[in-house]
Amino acid sequence: MSPAFWSAADTARRIAVGEVTATQVVEAQLARIAAIDGELGAYLAVDAAGALAAAADVDRRRAANQPIGPLAGVPIALKDVLVTRGLATTAASKILEGWIPPYDAHVVEKLRAADAIILGKVNCDEFAMGSSTENSAYRKTRNPWNAERVPGGSSGGSSAAVAAGLCAASLGTDTGGSIRQPAAFCGVVGLKPTYGRVSRWGVVAFASSLDQVGPLTRTVADAALVLQAIAGFDPRDSTSLDAPVPRFADGLTGDIRGLRIGLPQEYFEAMDDDVRAAVARAAGALVERGAETVDLSLPHTGLALAAYYLIAPAEASSNLARFDGVRYGRRVEAASLTEMYARTRGAGFGPEVKRRIMLGTYALRSGYYDAYYKKAQQIRTLIKRDFDRAFKYCDVILTPTTPTPAFAFGAKATPVEMYLADVFTLSCNLAGLPGISVPCGLAGDGLPIGAQLLGRALDEATLLRTAAVIEAAVGLGEQRPAGVAGLAGLAGPAGPAGAAGPGGLDGPAIPGGAA
Amino acid sequence: MPELTRTEVEEIALLARLRLEPDELDRMQRELGAILEHFQTIAAVDTTGVPPMVHAVPMDLRLRVDVPEPSLPAELALAGAPRREADLLVVPSSIAPGRTGTGTEP
Amino acid sequence: MTQPRPGRQTLADGLAQGTPRAAGDDVPGMPRGSSSSLAKPLEDWEPVIGLEVHVQLATRTKIFSPSAIEFGAPPNSLTDPLVLGLPGTLPVFNHAVLQLALKLGVATSSQIRARSRFARKHYFYPDLPKGYQISQFEEPLCENGHLDVILRGGLKRVKLQRIHLEEDAGKTTHVGVSSHVDLNRAGVPLVEVVTAPELGSAEEAGEFMRSLLRLVRWLEISDGDMEKGQMRCDANVSIRRRGEDRLGTRTELKNINSFRFVENAIEHEIARQIRMLESGERIVRETRLWDADRGQSQPMRSKEEANDYRYFPDPDLPPLVVDGLIMASILRSIPELPGVRYDRYQRVLGVSSDDARTLVSERSLADYFDAVVAAHPGDRSGRMLANWVLTELLGALHATGTPVARSPMAPATLSALVVLIESGTISGKIGKEVFEESFRTGEAPATIIERRGLQQISDTAVLWEIINRVVAANPKQAEAYTVGGKDGLFGFFVGAVMKETKGRANPVITSDLLHKRLGR
Ligand SMILES: [Mg+2]
Ligand SMILES: [Zn+2]
């Protein structure tokens, strides 16, 4: 028995019917982590004792015919920016080394309440700042499809662990694409919910007006299942939306007849040919199932990157001011208070974090605020208005998740180059909208490609329904990654690029698209 | 937008309480300069009359009832503190040596 | 809620408890600006003072988390993950803070913003856990209000630029080369009241503080106890040559954390600035820390630590919306304000301005006085009732350390006593005796008078007989008065009649009859 690639839904079902125990599933996962993760580098901490205890509890209750939750026994890995009571939480930063939180994040409480098993904490870019997980202060996480490629970021530990079968699902956070981009790079599904859909209580803040927690899973149905468990109103987050949460799984009908798919021209300008072709195939598959495409324009897209890289660092510089060596975390002693702060923070933060703190501090200074932060917030309004207008003509927007598949370690030599990796994903955060990345084939070099769907606020249901159609038509199917030692023997080798899907479509100019 | 000077970089680093080594300062000046260059794109956009968007989803502030919940025991509250004396956090003095008294900044 | 704390003898309490007029018509214990040394220079120089006053709102929990508030609790025992600034925590606003702040906004006739916003103010300090203070910056809750300061010459209307909401920091204590930090106070709700720079002297600044203290207690939104840090004052001080329009360079005085230092500290700063300008030096714009122990101020931070607060709207907190419904409930809850009562006591009740000022020094005193007036049948007795409240009642309360609100004598009893005096049943002098006994025992004045036979003797026949007896017994004095013209002896005969009647003789009738009997 290998539960490694069972879906979360399947795992829960098998445990519920008694086909397997939660303890067996967890033991198998722990063994697999021990075998593979030394090379893969997804986990920062594995809570074997906690996971086994939780599994035993599920098994005991199931045996006693007591009710068990919808995720009972499903092993889940948490991005290390999610606060876990009694379990070290580092945000992949030296400055938080050794910090044991006295409380659980809202999403962690919700997962525990659903009887999910927390396997451990996974790697990410330090404080979720990055697009490759190279900014972790602790370890390098490899892309399971190709050990020389990055897993994406900042939720790279999450995407790698899910893709490699080291957990059934993972929670990541997405501030400018940090769930969707690594999901695309690792060939898994990644969903960023509407801002306010999932509580941020217990999420180590990067950029408060952009951050959202969401699932990374191997199937669209699993994304629906996990989102169901974590979504909903939380009075501890003043930006949490008090809106009804639909039953997401019920919406996965496969019926997309009459659905209008918007193709924004600005998202199809510069990208790899493989990516363009794969997204075109996804669009074609949707049309085949009865959707129609709509060419449209989101004219302020070109300003999103600059607006994002002002807003996010500004908020980050503020959110990271609390890491001062006074109440928790590492301190570098010094004779004066100012020196203690400066040394603690100088030694505790990595280069990218420091860069963003500097950038944000620069932009918020008095006399600069209007020209930078406020201006960026105005641009944000323009971007939001673009989407509002677009959603009068379409129900969901389809774009590539990233311009290229996973890049090599060290490939992005300058910060600006790295920032450009997020160019397709960050508008969604600026506008507060939900977005999902779903695999839509492999590139010529065997690396996965993601299609991104963006929806109206609170309309995750339509995203999931549409993504499930793409998954069924042009998804990766049973193809598993084999790029990291230990994986090949456990799963079949990757199939050739573009093997699946109807093919023959070129670029976004989909026949039948309305103006 | 003005060029970023070395002095400015040092001032920002002090404001952000980040000790940067000389080579870090050099690199920061270069990299921040390049990033700021990139921001030129939005400087040119006319945003007259466009309201700044502070929150992604419009909503009003919710109000909480004024009812206390149990505090963290001091032991737990201070568990992660790098330095403490009894139930107080300890830091290097923020005022000139020799002076005593209490005070709260601004 | 304002909790009476028996036994407190802070100076601010002297104000709040009201004080008997006998002790002086000013608030005792409050140093009047000891301005003798400044008198001369102030002929040439005009001080311009603006205050920023932080007032702790009397809520049960902190502004953004349900952590309890309690003075004097063991260090770091009143925290939670939010108060500690732990990663991942988020603020949730306490509605009681809004209620209390709105009362102050309405009571100062401020414009209340329908949508106000919280902003983050950044600086690094060990008692500021998040590295920023949640405050309000561009869109504060209240703007353009005013506070009527009751000076001895009458009301002065001081403009309030803004009243905004913010959280308090913790407490840092400097011990040798270290500082100790207690975060119990972190997150306690504050309003910051910012005046326009239009206070003209240290004394006016002190009066402003007293008026604000009175108002927050009046509204029951804060205890305002400066000794407990519930009210703190920063002062922006500048001086200019009289007649000059342009403002001089200002300094900001911080850490004026006791009521008694407000005037001292400002006075001292005015004197320092005059000294500097007169000796040709320039004032530097800086923040100075008042050191009460040494009675002097020092620059607070060096230039290298100059701050830039990098305000921006807090993305964790959507706009604070005040709708008509909230405003209606606040408006209903506002009592008649001190300035209005001060005015009414003078115009409607004929009370002197000094008495009116003392009566409104505390709400419970003014409420007591209003209850006495309400119980009183006549409408011409305001002056006399004020007199009785301020002299006898306050004197007795003060002597026994009893707050007005717990006076053993009910307002109706005091009113009844005054009725007995006004109707001539007893004299004013006997009235004081009756008051003393009634205050002490709780017995009704009428009963005391009856039991002790203290009714005034106004019967002409009875008094004529007594006078005859007295004159007959003192023939030499009678002759000296009538024939010898020694006017001073008239008092001797009044005294003798009073002695005979144990003070019960109606003084007016007695005087009339004596004149008749002695022939002039
Ligand atoms: Mg201030
Ligand atoms: Zn303040």
Please provide a written account of the structure:
The complex is a heterotrimer of chains A (515), B (106) and C (520). Chain A has 515 residues and is an alpha/beta fold. Chain A is 36% helix and 12% strand. Chain A has helices at residues 8-16, 22-40, 48-63, 106-113, 156-163, 180-186, 220-230, 273-288, 304-319, 337-348, 351-364, 370-393, 415-419, 426-431, 460-474; strands at 43-46, 75-79, 117-122, 169-174, 189-192, 212-217, 260-264, 292-296, 396-400, 435-442, 448-455. In chain A, strands 1-3-2-4-6-5-10-11-9-7-8 form an eleven-stranded mixed sheet, sandwiched between helices. In chain A, α4 (106-113) links the parallel β2 (75-79) and β3. The longest helix of chain A has 24 residues, at 370-393. Chain B has 106 residues and is an alpha+beta fold. Helix content of chain B is 33%, strand content 10%. Chain B is built from four helices and four strands. A two-stranded antiparallel sheet of chain B has the order 2-3. Residues 97-106 of chain B have low confidence and may be disordered. With 520 residues, chain C is of the alpha+beta class. Chain C is built from 17 helices and 17 strands. The longest helix of chain C has 19 residues, at 382-400. Chains in contact: A-B, A-C, B-C. At the A-B interface, α9, α10, α11, α12 and α13 of A face α1, α2, α3 and β3 of B. The structure holds magnesium ion and zinc ion. Magnesium ion binds at residues 52, 192 of chain C.
Helix content range of chain B: 25-40%
Radius of gyration of chain A: 21 Å
Strand content of chain B: 5-15%
Integer-rounded radius of gyration of chain B:
23 Å
Give the key terms.
heterotrimer; A: alpha/beta; eleven-stranded mixed β-sheet; 36% helix; globular; disordered C terminus; C: 520 residues; alpha+beta; nine-stranded mixed β-sheet; three-stranded antiparallel β-sheet; 17 helices; disordered N terminus; binds magnesium ion
Set down the secondary structure blueprint.
The complex is a heterotrimer of chains A (515), B (106) and C (520).
Chain A: H1 8-16, H2 22-40, E1 43-46, H3 48-63, E2 75-79, H4 106-113, E3 117-122, H5 156-163, E4 169-174, H6 180-186, E5 189-192, E6 212-217, H7 220-230, E7 260-264, H8 273-288, E8 292-296, H9 304-319, H10 337-348, H11 351-364, H12 370-393, E9 396-400, H13 415-419, H14 426-431, E10 435-442, E11 448-455, H15 460-474
Parallel strand pairs in A: 2-3, 2-4, 7-8, 7-9
Antiparallel strand pairs in A: 1-3, 4-6, 5-6, 5-10, 9-11, 10-11
Helix pairs in contact in A: 2-3, 5-6, 7-15, 8-15, 9-11, 9-12
Chain B: H1 6-15, H2 22-38, H3 40-43, E1 63-64, H4 74-77, E2 84-85, E3 88-92, E4 101-102
Antiparallel strand pairs in B: 2-3
Chain C: H1 11-16, H2 41-44, E1 45-56, E2 93-94, H3 95-107, E3 111-112, E4 115-116, E5 119-122, E6 132-135, E7 142-151, E8 154-167, E9 171-175, E10 178-182, E11 189-195, H4 202-218, E12 231-241, E13 251-256, H5 261-278, E14 287-291, E15 296-299, E16 312-313, E17 320-321, H6 324-333, H7 338-347, H8 353-359, H9 363-375, H10 382-400, H11 411-422, H12 428-441, H13 445-452, H14 460-473, H15 475-482, H16 489-501, H17 507-518
Parallel strand pairs in C: 13-14
Antiparallel strand pairs in C: 1-11, 1-12, 3-7, 4-17, 5-6, 5-16, 7-8, 8-11, 9-10, 12-13, 14-15
Helix pairs in contact in C: 3-6, 4-5, 7-8, 9-10, 9-11, 11-12, 14-16, 14-17, 16-17
The complex binds magnesium ion and zinc ion.
